[in-house]
Write a structure and sequence with these properties.
Blueprint: H1 22-26, H2 28-31, H3 44-74, H4 77-101, H5 106-110, H6 125-134, H7 149-159, H8 164-177, H9 196-207, H10 213-244, H11 256-262, H12 269-277
């Protein structure tokens, strides 16, 4: 009879008494201990893990977008491109998570919904920061974060600097015009609205992609991100409607009606509009 395989025979380290283990590196004990159930409902653990993992992925999105903005400003376009591609893949991962949550039925959710109190994904400061970094800025959305001054301060700080898209637009004008004299002022504390000057320059790019390939590639990377981001919002809407119908959200929003309104938001409107102008 053959003996069970022993990884040690292939050189695997098996004693971690005085060395860093996998669990040590990932702080697995802490990570697996933060799922605090507030009911006896079977599906509450699914609900918590779904949202906690979403927050982890959003943390990585912000890490990538922040680094991409620095890379763009320093001229590291290849590094920026890789980071933007990763952001799209992260949003794809976030989209796939909804398939798991949709296995929870209305009957399952009602067993623990009251335990959530007024908490809601609407209050996620990382989601808000992603919107702010990409250019969808609304000072009213600071209010849900006033109870955590440090978070509110970080969001306010972001609102007072050019968004990632503003930096892309600066790069667009600098590349095509040789300067930024005709560039509209960044829309710092308001949602980005389409500007003809910006759309006209994207049109130059799309009408001669061979000459302006780097700008064209950057534009399509942005479209990838917004495409996946819109799908994420749409999956959110359909999942909520499937589970609670048109009930008011736990955080006090109108629920599905509010989420549907968010579907109309465009992060990079000039890139969408230019398609109809070609």
């Amino acid at each position: 009879m053959s003996c069970p395989y022993d990884p040690k025979s292939d050189g695997a380290k098996m004693d971690f008494q005085d060395a860093m283990s996998y669990g040590d590196y990932l702080c697995a004990d802490q990570l697996l201990s933060i799922q605090k159930l507030r009911s006896d409902a079977h599906d509450e653990l699914l609900f918590i893990i779904q949202h906690q993992t979403s927050e982890l992925w959003m943390k990585l999105v912000l890490h990538e977008l922040s680094s991409a903005r620095v890379a763009l400003k320093s001229g590291n376009l290849s590094g920026m491109s890789k980071m933007l591609a990763r952001v799209s893949r992260i949003f794809e991962q976030l989209n796939n998570q909804w398939d798991v949550l949709r296995t929870m039925t209305p009957a399952d959710y009602t067993q623990f919904r009251d335990a959530l109190g007024p908490s809601s994904g609407f209050q996620s400061h990382q989601y808000r920061m992603i919107e702010f970094v990409l250019g969808n800025r609304n000072a009213n959305m600071l209010k849900p974060h006033e109870h955590v001054p440090a978070v509110k301060a970080e969001l306010e700080k972001e609102m007072n600097i050019p968004s990632f898209y503003d930096e892309v637009v600066r790069h667009l004008f600098q590349t095509l015009d040789g300067n930024t004299d005709a560039m509209p002022d960044p829309q710092l504390a308001t949602p980005h609205e389409a500007r003809d000057e910006i759309q006209n320059r994207w049109q130059i790019v799309y009408e001669d992609i061979d000459t302006h390939w780097a700008l064209y590639e950057l534009a399509e990377k942005l479209m990838d991100i917004e495409d996946y981001f819109r799908r994420w919002r749409f999956n959110h809407v359909t999942t909520v409607e499937r589970v609670i119908g048109f009930k008011r959200g736990t955080g006090g929003t109108s629920g599905v009606a509010y989420l549907r309104r968010m579907l109309s938001v465009e992060l990079f409107p000039e890139l969408w509009n230019v398609r109809g102008a070609l």
